[in-house]
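[agent] plan:
  1. take the single chain provided in the ticket
  2. run structure prediction with default settings
  3. attach structure tokens to the ticket
  4. add a short note for the reviewer (M.T.)
[agent] executing step 1
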Amino acid sequence: MGEGLADGQTEEGAGPRDFRTAPLIGLSYLPAYLHDGRAATLREAVLGHGSPGSEAAGTIERFQGLAAED
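[agent] step 2 finished; step 3 output follows
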């Protein structure tokens, strides 16, 4: 997920850049986003994946190309 989201923790074969993604059901009821709640909005969560080394660069580029109503 890139160096910007790395938490420095290693556990059972998962490195500091690896995270378990929680199910998205009920997403609108969450007070914060990302695996550790550091993003206050969905936009912030998506853009947070754009740090160097992230595999999400293409997805973020498409997200930024969306119209505001989308």
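[agent] step 4 note for reviewer: The chain has a mean pLDDT of 79.
[agent] ticket updated
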